[in-house]
Amino acid sequence: MSIRLEHLNYVYSLGTAYEKHALKDISLTIPHGEFVGIIGHTGSGKSTLIQHLNGLIKATSGALYYNDENIYEEGYNMRELRNQVGLVFQYPEHQLFEIDVMTDVCFGPKNQGLGPKECKERALEALKLVGLKEKYYKSSPFELSGGQKRRVAIAGVLAMRPKVLVLDEPTAGLDPKGRDDILDQIAYLHKESDMTVILVSHSMEDIARYADRIIVMNKGSVMYNDKPKKVFAHYQELEKVGLAAPQVTYIMHDLKEHGLPVKVDVTTVEEAAREIMQALERKE
Ligand code: ADP
């Protein structure tokens, strides 16, 4: 499903003394199947933006199109949209409540009106996709580790087979290993399916590693919307708004300044390692 926002504005508490213009004239397109990263400091409008994507909140003005259909037109099937756009909130494990993992993951498909057999099939498929070991399927969600709980919560959304998966800081509060596992799993899911993935993160490292494109939010507006390398080339401007390029980008700039002929538009550790090795070989 392709997504297009046109001149979208959102104002909290409109018409009161507490008005807050949280999204300002947002226009952007997310083609079907893309992996997009959304980044920005706290309060820049990321959560407000993603809540529009499955119709949780309605724009004050402007339009939001899915496959060229304006979801704000009368008669648009919002229920169907919510089935197709899966939103994983921050700390989704707070919403785990069923007696065991299987039952919990079945909750979404059951709500979609599917019968018990199909729900179970969906749940099994989703749990496999998130890489949770079978021995946990009958456990209470509350007995699991933080990373495992997160997987169960993501499986609960995947079991509804969304076409668009939106994740709000899916690694918040996890240790580095748990973080990498979850993100690798999401990247794998994206590769294996034709799902559009929208990942909100405050980690430049994570976004640089996984996203095809980055949307940088600043004070309710889109500051950059481009490929990671192009966005991080603006690292000085990013710093001015309290953001930064991945640390490795700075290291490459330092190495170049100290005479090692490396490319500076490197954004991941793996890429940096290759580039440094090649530069050293060139120097010899
Ligand atoms: P982010 O997700 O980037 O931290 P948010 O979308 O949560 O940003 O917030 C954008 C702006 O809207 C902030 O200034 C925030 O204080 C304000 N805001 C968020 N939620 C509400 C709300 N329910 N009522 C009023 N203002 C809000």
TrEMBL record:
Main location: membrane
Domain of life assignment: Bacteria
GO MF term (any one): ATP binding
GO CC, alphabetical: ATP-binding cassette (ABC) transporter complex
Domain ABC transporter: 3-244
Keywords: ATP-binding, Cell membrane, Membrane, Nucleotide-binding, Translocase, Transport
Database matches in CDD domains: ABC_cobalt_CbiO_domain1
Membrane topology listed for this record: Peripheral membrane protein
InterPro entries: AAA+_ATPase, ABC_transporter-like_ATP-bd, ABC_transporter-like_CS, ABC_transpr_CbiO/EcfA_su, ECF_ABC_transporter_ATP-bd, EcfA2, P-loop_NTPase
SUPFAM superfamilies listed in its UniProt record: P-loop containing nucleoside triphosphate hydrolases
Keyword Cell cycle among record annotations: no
EC class name: translocase
Family: Belongs to the ABC transporter superfamily. Energy-coupling factor EcfA family.
Job of this protein: ATP-binding (A) component of a common energy-coupling factor (ECF) ABC-transporter complex.
Assembly and binders: Forms a stable energy-coupling factor (ECF) transporter complex composed of 2 membrane-embedded substrate-binding proteins (S component), 2 ATP-binding proteins (A component) and 2 transmembrane proteins (T component).
Protein's UniProt name: Energy-coupling factor transporter ATP-binding protein EcfA2
Species: Clostridium scindens (strain JCM 10418 / VPI 12708)
